[in-house]
Design the sequence.
């Protein structure tokens, strides 16, 4: 399982557990909070009604009091109201009044008149001067059928002459509780969904960063010269990428030096041995023509050494990314014509056939480096073609790429040599048995890769074809 997926699953489980806990806590608090609020309203209502009925209670005319008349009218009067989407068709408020002994004198429901309520907590506590309230099940088989009773004393001076109790079934609040719980569940669901989306986005972002680092490490392992990835919003990954870049530079530098020293030592053996042998012979008495021949050999080997050193220095600067570059907009067709003109004296009886597109073939690049890459490939095409042969150049645009094909009609490349053509110091003999330094194609590939392009060589009867691809310049 991927690391980012593990993080997301862990985050999902943690978030789900927290969400379940929060929903449970809030849901457990909704019902008590609503009941506390309803209790406060009932308390205020009971005290207000107790003050209103006090004169009639003290005068002994409770049955004909305004409260009794209002209670009877309220019981008969239908209601037509909607409170926060919950319809109300009749009042669920019940009021009863007891004397100072707890006997019910008046009941809005007409159920308890004359009964002794002195043992009920609301009446008993209020008669003792305390706060009286109770919650009782209306139906023992239904745990939701609780009714809340809140009482207030009816006083005459400092003496309690009766108790007024206001009650309301808690079931009347159930629609509001369910409505609040539904809203809470939807809100928690939306928050949970948003958090999951953010978690998924974070996991994708983290996975993307790790993937970039993995690709960078794989490219380094494959020996590719790729830039160090950058992470603008992640300092830790940015630091890790820089550390990997420094490690690559140090390891590459060590391996690079070791490989170059090995290759250079191996390649310099032959010309140095020739120079040393010629120098020893030159110490002897020689005929003028022999002396001249050995001097020419020394000059040739020194030139070859100089070419090897120059190519190695340039190739090293390209492969380590330290080469000075001046990228500008270039016309590849114009650059190709320039190199063909420079190589024209070497053509002899060979012919050049070119197919170039109309208009400019623009790309971003360094004119000197690209010119050198083209010159190397064209020089090889000339050296390995027949003396009266034909070299074909075809430059065309395909999508966002410029493709240059250079084909000659010389001898095909041996199968064993095809995979080794771009290796340093690998070279095939040219006409007359002369060999190059074996660095031209390696240098050419490094230059093209520096410009985001590539090169491929294959046998294409009757000869060999080189394909160069470079990206077009953006408009």
Sequence:
């Amino acid at each position: 399982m991927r690391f980012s997926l593990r993080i997301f699953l862990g985050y999902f489980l943690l978030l789900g557990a927290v969400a379940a806990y929060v929903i449970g806590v809030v849901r457990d608090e909704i019902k008590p909070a609503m009941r506390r609020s309803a209790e406060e309203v009932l308390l205020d209502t009971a005290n207000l009604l107790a003050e209103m009925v006090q004169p009639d209670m003290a005068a002994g005319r409770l049955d004909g009091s305004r409260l009794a008349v209002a209670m009877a009218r309220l019981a008969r009067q239908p209601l037509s109201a909607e409170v926060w989407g919950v319809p109300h068709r009749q009042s669920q408020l019940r009021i009863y009044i007891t004397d100072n002994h707890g006997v019910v004198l008046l009941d809005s429901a007409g159920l308890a008149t004359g009964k002794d309520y002195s043992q009920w907590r609301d009446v008993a506590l209020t008669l003792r001067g305390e706060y009286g309230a109770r919650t009782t099940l209306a139906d023992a088989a239904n745990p939701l059928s609780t009714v809340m009773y809140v009482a207030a004393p009816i006083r005459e001076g400092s003496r309690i002459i009766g108790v007024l109790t206001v009650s309301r079934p808690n079931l009347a609040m159930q629609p509001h509780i369910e409505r609040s719980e539904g809203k809470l569940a939807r809100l928690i669901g939306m928050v949970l969904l948003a958090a999951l989306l953010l978690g998924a986005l974070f996991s994708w972002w983290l996975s993307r960063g790790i993937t970039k680092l993995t690709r960078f490490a794989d490219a380094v392992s494959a020996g590719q010269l790729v830039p160090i990835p950058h992470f603008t919003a992640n300092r830790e990954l940015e630091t890790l990428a820089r550390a990997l870049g420094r490690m690559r530079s140090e390891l590459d530098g060590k391996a690079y030096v070791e490989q170059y020293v090995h290759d250079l030592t191996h390649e310099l053996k032959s010309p140095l041995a020739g120079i040393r042998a010629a120098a020893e012979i030159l110490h002897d008495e020689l005929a003028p023509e022999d002396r001249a021949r050995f001097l020419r050999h020394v000059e040739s080997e020194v030139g070859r050494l100089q070419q090897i050193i120059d190519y190695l220095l340039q190739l090293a600067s390209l492969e380590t990314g330290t080469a000075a570059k001046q990228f500008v907009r270039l016309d590849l067709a114009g650059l190709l014509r320039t190199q063909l003109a420079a190589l024209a004296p070497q053509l002899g009886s060979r012919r050049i056939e070119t197919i170039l597109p109309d208009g400019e073939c623009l790309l971003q690049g360094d004119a000197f480096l690209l010119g050198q890459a083209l010159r190397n490939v064209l020089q090889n095409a000339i050296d390995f073609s027949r003396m009266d042969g034909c070299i074909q150049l075809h430059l065309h645009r395909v999508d966002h790429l410029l493709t240059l094909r250079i084909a000659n009609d010389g001898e095909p490349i041996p199968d064993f040599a095809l995979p080794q053509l771009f290796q340093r110091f690998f070279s095939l003999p040219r006409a007359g048995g002369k060999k190059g330094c074996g660095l031209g194609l390696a240098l050419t590939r490094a230059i093209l890769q520096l410009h985001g392009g590539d090169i491929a060589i294959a046998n294409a009867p009757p000869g060999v074809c080189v394909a160069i691809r470079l990206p077009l310049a953006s408009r």
